[in-house]
Each structure stands twice: as structure tokens, then as C-alpha cells.
């Protein structure tokens, strides 16, 4: 079980990617020697990796270049969105997470939340959470989409038919006033709708580059989603238009 200080270290690393000992010392308001002791214990427990006077979260799997290129886009915006989403998750919850780079960032940040159950159709998200004994990770059935590491197909729907989720976090490739939420392809949309059907609340994670776009496969109208979480580079005018269309919008502030 992580201590409060260790949980804060993980939270800071999730938000910034990598931090030096001096930076963590300043953020935590403790000495550098105290930080080093904490980092040593956390590294021994597999919670982080130390690199030349700094620390970062472990990356347990190697991603294909196409996925890595997508993950490298709007990195800070995705971290901000994930940080805002993480605050909505409480111990004891059952949380669904679809695939995609922003949802993957959320999975990394959920490492600091104890005693939750994660249900996902993305094998990479399951691997991101491996080794955390205070979490139960459940992976749906399905056919692997090599481009997104998601399992898709009717097996996903069957896997979720007898599951109850408190929250479902889904990525989206497009958010349009008329077309609603959309995905790059239909199999992803089918899997996402299965998560929606199993959950009390559905939350879409989408950075500002997705707003105003309509992609190939429609997921659902705007009003069928509980909340959109986006970043603060989304224009106030677009946020207001989405709110007027009946969608609750949470704008994630930049991580300090």
C-alpha cells in the first residue's frame, strides 16, 4: 500500500512525465534526502523508474510507432484531461475504460487510486495497470485491433452485458454539434456503445483538436453522454455552444 507522500509523487509524475529530485522536493516541501528514500522504496516496489537524478513512471510495454506518434500529440493536454477525470474516481468504484491515447493516460494516473476495479477492452491499458495488487483489472473478449490495442467485435458486447459500471471513460475522435460523438471506425463505436449501456455515467475524454470534427462512425448524440472532459485550449465559444446543446463540459486546467 502506498503512503500519502508516495501517492503524491505518483500523481506528480503522472502529470509531468518525469521530475527531478529537486523538483519533487519543492513540490512536496521535504528535503531531497527524504525524496530519495521514498524513490528508492517506490522503485523497489515497481512503482517508478529512477533515471539520473530524476524519476518517471514505468512504461511496461513497447508501443508501435503509429500509436506512439498519436500519443506524442497534445501530450500535456491529455495529461490535464486525465488528471481531471481521475478526480472523479473514488475507491470502491467499478470503472470502464476504452482504448485510445487519452484513456491510456488516465489508466496511468489511476495507479494512485486504491481499491478500484477496471474493466477495459484495451490490452495495453490492462498492462499499464499490471502489478498493482490493490486493483482488479478485467479485460473483455474480442478481436485485437493492432492499431489501437483495443479488442473489438461482438465479444466485447457479450462481455459487458452482465456487468455494472459506475463510470465509463471513452475516447472520441470527433465532437460535433450536429453529428455528435464519433470514432475513426465502426468496431470502436460498437465497443464504446457497449460500455455506455453498462454504465451509470459515460464521460468522453477529448482534447481540443477533436472538437468541431466529425469522423466516420457515429457513436451517439451529444445528449446521451454525461460529460465531456476537454482541455483549456478549447475555445470558450465552442464550449458554450456544446453546453447550449445540452452537454455538460468540464474544462481541465493545466497541471501546475
Explain what this protein looks like in three dimensions.
Helix content is 38%, strand content 25%. Helix 1 packs antiparallel against helix 5 (75-86), helix 2 (21-28) packs across helix 3 (32-44) and helix 5 packs across helix 6 (101-109). With 256 residues, the protein is of the alpha/beta class. It has helices at 4-16, 21-28, 32-44, 65-71, 75-86, 101-109, 123-128, 154-160, 186-198, 236-244, and strands at residues 18-20, 49-51, 54-56, 94-97, 116-120, 135-139, 143-145, 150-152, 165-171, 174-176, 180-183, 199-205, 217-220, 227-231, 249-252.
Question: What would the keywords be for this entry?
Answer:
single chain; 256 residues; alpha/beta; Arc Repressor Mutant, subunit A; Rossmann fold; 2 domains; seven-stranded parallel beta sheet; three-stranded antiparallel beta sheet; 38% helix; 25% strand
Amino acid at each position: 500500500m502506498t503512503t500519502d507522500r508516495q501517492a503524491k509523487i505518483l500523481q506528480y509524475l503522472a502529470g509531468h512525465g518525469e521530475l527531478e529530485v529537486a523538483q519533487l522536493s519543492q513540490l512536496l516541501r521535504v528535503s531531497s534526502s527524504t525524496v530519495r528514500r521514498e524513490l528508492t522504496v517506490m522503485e523497489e516496489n515497481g512503482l517508478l523508474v529512477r533515471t539520473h537524478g530524476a524519476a518517471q513512471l514505468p512504461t511496461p510495454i513497447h508501443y508501435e510507432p503509429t500509436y506512439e506518434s498519436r500519443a506524442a500529440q497534445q501530450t500535456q493536454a491529455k495529461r490535464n484531461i486525465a488528471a481531471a477525470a481521475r478526480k472523479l474516481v473514488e475507491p470502491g468504484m467499478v470503472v470502464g475504460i476504452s482504448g485510445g491515447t487519452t484513456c491510456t493516460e488516465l489508466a496511468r494516473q489511476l495507479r494512485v487510486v486504491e481499491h478500484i476495479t477496471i474493466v477495459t477492452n484495451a490490452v495495453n491499458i490492462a498492462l499499464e495497470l499490471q502489478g498493482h495488487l490493490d486493483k482488479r483489472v478485467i479485460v473483455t473478449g474480442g478481436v485485437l485491433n493492432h492499431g489501437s490495442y483495443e479488442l473489438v467485435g461482438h465479444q466485447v458486447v457479450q462481455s459487458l452485458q452482465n456487468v455494472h459500471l459506475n463510470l465509463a471513460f471513452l475516447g472520441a475522435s470527433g465532437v460535433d454539434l450536429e453529428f455528435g460523438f464519433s470514432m475513426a471506425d465502426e468496431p470502436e463505436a460498437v465497443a464504446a456503445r457497449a460500455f455506455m449501456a453498462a454504465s451509470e455515467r459515460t464521460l468522453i475524454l477529448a482534447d481540443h483538436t477533436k472538437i468541431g470534427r466529425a469522423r466516420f462512425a457515429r457513436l451517439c448524440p451529444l445528449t446521451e453522454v454525461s460529460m465531456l472532459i476537454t482541455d483549456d485550449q478549447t475555445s470558450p465559444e465552442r464550449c458554450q455552444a456544446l453546453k447550449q446543446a445540452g452537454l455538460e463540459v468540464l474544462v481541465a486546467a493545466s497541471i501546475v
